[in-house]
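Incident log, support desk, overnight shift.

02:14 A customer reports that sequence design results differ from what the structure should imply. Their input is reproduced verbatim below. On-call engineer (initials T.W.) acknowledged and began investigating.
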């Protein structure tokens, strides 16, 4: 497994890779390791999260530039590139001086202020044991992990792999507090807390509106005409749903209580299932004579009339 900070190696691209090369590499790996393709495969799930985190950084011009210049440390919340460069210049000048006192920047610089300012702290420390500063960051999580909740392993910039508990019903913008996981305090003083903001990755099939979920379900023509009992995926597992006879493609059916939980509550939204007709292979020679028979059933009916009335 690649090191968490080796994002280029994680995606299998060079450091000079273009945005298009990075995007193509991510898509190829995401299709291979996506949890939906590898159910109950913990290693594939961890690999999927690693490549997603690497892509989040390398697909963002600003994040990639900071990562290229400063490494994973440059991604930390509050990191000050100007202060980091100033400290690097001081460090290089100090190493060239036998007494470690040579520093020519044109102004007086306090080393403690420089070091504290690298992560947005600034200022001198107060005397006596001081509690560590709180830290913050953003992490990406899988759609179903956010909906169902539970413990997941994520990569946090400058802190490596962490296991966090996601509340059921979480969504993009949900904040999670990890007590004592912030910056270290002075000896005898507690560490600060770590506040993580969730960014939920889109799901290939489900989409979310509030606590309701939506799903386009492929169905056959016979299932629409005759009715059928079909299997429908939900965040809690597959369920059986009845399609009423004489249904049209585009009809929406509701599965009560099969949506996302309301954050902090046992109440759940609904799952809205849209029926979308899936035709047989258009190249099958048996389909054309059947289509001609069906054509006669449309005589006298304009299926697009309502579109013209609304324009």
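02:41 Re-run completed on a clean worker. Output:
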């Amino acid at each position: 497994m690649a090191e968490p900070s080796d994002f280029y190696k994680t995606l299998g691209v060079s450091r000079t890779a273009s945005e298009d090369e990075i995007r193509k590499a991510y898509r190829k790996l995401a299709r291979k390791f996506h949890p939906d393709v590898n159910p109950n495969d913990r290693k594939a799930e961890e690999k999927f999260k690693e490549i997603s985190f690497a892509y989040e950084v390398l697909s963002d011009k600003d994040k990639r530039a900071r990562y290229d210049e400063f490494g994973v440390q440059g991604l930390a919340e509050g990191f000050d590139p100007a202060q980091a460069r100033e400290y690097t210049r001081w460090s290089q000048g100090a190493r060239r001086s036998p007494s470690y006192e040579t520093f020519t920047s044109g102004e007086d610089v306090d080393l403690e202020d420089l070091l504290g300012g690298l992560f947005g702290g600034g200022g001198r420390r107060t005397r006596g044991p001081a509690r560590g500063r709180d830290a913050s960051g953003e992490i990406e999580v899988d759609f179903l992990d956010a909906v169902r909740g539970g413990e997941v392993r994520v990569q946090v910039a400058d802190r490596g792999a962490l296991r966090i508990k996601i509340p059921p019903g979480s969504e993009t913008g949900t904040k999670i507090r990890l007590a004592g996981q912030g910056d270290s305090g002075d000896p005898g003083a507690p560490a600060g807390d770590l506040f993580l903001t969730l960014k939920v990755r889109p799901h290939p099939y489900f989409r979310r509106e509030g606590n309701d979920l939506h799903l386009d379900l492929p169905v056959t023509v016979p299932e629409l005409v005759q009715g059928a009992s079909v299997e429908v995926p939900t965040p809690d597992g597959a369920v059986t749903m009845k399609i009423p006879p004489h249904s049209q493609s585009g009809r929406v059916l509701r599965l009560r209580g099969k949506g996302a939980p309301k954050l902090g509550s046992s109440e759940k939204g609904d799952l809205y299932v849209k029926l979308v007709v899936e035709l047989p292979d258009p190249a099958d020679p048996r389909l054309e004579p059947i289509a001609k028979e069906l054509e006669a059933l449309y005589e006298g009916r304009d299926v697009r009339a309502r579109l013209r009335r609304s324009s």
